[in-house]
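Homework help thread (please don't just give me the answer)

Our assignment gives two proteins as sequence + structure token strings and asks us to describe the second one. The first is just a warm-up. Here they are:
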Amino acid sequence: MSDLDPEFLQQRDRQLSAQYGEDSPAARQFDRARRKVLMHDIMAFLRGYRNHLLDFGPLSEALASGDPVDMGVQDVPLDAIRGSVDRYREFDLAFLPKHEGLRDRWQRVEAARRYGLPTRPVELYKLGDVYFVKDGHHRVSVARLHGDKNIQAHVLEITSRVPLQPNLKPDELPDIQAYGDFLRVTRADEILPGVDLRLSEPRYYARLLRHIALFRYLNRQSNEEPREWPEAVHAWYDQLYRPICEMIRDSGVMKRFPKRTRTDLYLWIATHFRQLNKRLPRPEEMDEIADHLNDTYLAPFWNG
């Protein structure tokens, strides 16, 4: 009998209705998922983060480089699916349903799985190594609850300016987005490929951008126009940033600041150059100053 036969379709619908109706196995599965969400919400509240999916919009705006590339249909690890294109508040970080309004559709997908009906691949964007659902949220949710490892998906891949890993923590997002915005504006990832300019405080990226722009303006002859941006960034890196960072590296001072970056220290030095210049010690004082570098110069900045 053909799958399109009306009698067959009616019979199938009756069987499915029994599977997803009130007090059905699918309904009990949905209730189980909602109980899990409650526990996840409580843990997220106590640990200080929001228990919902990653939002593709602001992340792609900050991090995306180039157009999506169609990667075709493939098996995707469910643990790597961490976000959504337009429904990020409707599911938690474990991709379980966060409100009752999702019940009917979720239970239908659960019932279809129990009945053994085939399903089409979900549609995903891949940004870095993290996947975001464009279509198929309920299918991903049901598969996650059942403990599946992979799901068939049609994938569109987008290059990320900043490495993005599936195990990223919610509290890392502000830093990642801020660095992505900085790279998008400066194009430093294109101009200086492989160079890590990350700061530990997102609010200081604007200051770093001003330093590069000021270098571009000052590093020219009085009767010349400022250099083109790529050339200026290269010159800033070769003439200022790299030499200072090499001195920082060779000094070994970074071991005193395990949570800071070389760019942090570079920016502090560049910001406080005038004050440092006024206090430059005599040669015979250098050893004593070096021994007290942390207390004299650096600790007030990091504690302030």
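The one we have to describe:
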Amino acid sequence: MDIGIAVAGFLVGVVVGLTGMGGGALMTPMLMLFFGVQPLAAVSSDLVASAVMKPVGSLVHLRRGTVQLSLVKWLVIGSVPCAFSGVLVARALGSTGSEDQVQHVIRIAMGIALLFAAGAMIFRAYMSLLERARHRREAAGRPDAEPEPESGSSAAPEVKVRRVPTLLIGAVGGLVVGMTSVGSGSLIIVALLMLYPALKAGQLVGTDLVQAVPLVLAAAVGHLLFGDFRLDVTTALLVGSVPGVYLGSLISSRAPSGLIRRALAVVLVASGLKLLGLGNVALGWTLLAVVLAAPALWMLLRTRHGFAPLASLEGRRSR
């Protein structure tokens, strides 16, 4: 067993427990870039490990009542068959060439998926800022209005399901997950946010985690049968990631998840660009520009919508 992979799995597990996302988006590129695991083997092993981790978070949300089971049903109908066939699609894309060509196709698909996931996280954060600004404006016109709960842990009323769009979200998300192991969190949850804007963040996360269980299981079975599953890699991932997820879940209520999500977005961008073949020098300058420009832009957006430039300052004032 590779101790380095176990340690990496533990760190990623903590991030998943804290933020609810980032498993495939972080672990698969990490296996490829730092441990030299071939892309298809990295996807296969990570998906099998995720099939063990995902039920942990979903059980928590089911107990808290933050799951829209009506949405889960239609997402699963679309995602499960597409997730199972994702590995076959990856194989078919390279069927006319060598095994190296298959790995190259998966590497490119992974890079695109990671950049999309990073953009999805940024979009989700901006939509959350707009929602808070809207609630603040409404509360200003009603002095007796109750403050909006931060956690969104209370059960939400059932939403009116838009069956065809929801099924398509599941199908596209399942195909991407089956090919790259990325998307069961970041991609699908943002698509749900755009389709069902009335759902709160906690309910979006809970719904996505529950639907991700059969999705990841289907993709894992497909990779066990037709992929390049490696037991030694998966074992090392599980040894590290399972206690990591448990620890992350325990401290998630106290940890600065916003900071974790920002760091996760940077890692997603870096991994995606690297997988797409960007050189080290160009990658370094790109990340430096992102790290310097993104905080200033975010503070400008917060100020424009009536919030303190820094969330920590806003928290101190509220206390």
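TA reply:
I won't write it for you, but here's a hint about the kind of observation we're looking for: Residues 148-155, 313-319 have pLDDT under 50 and may be disordered.
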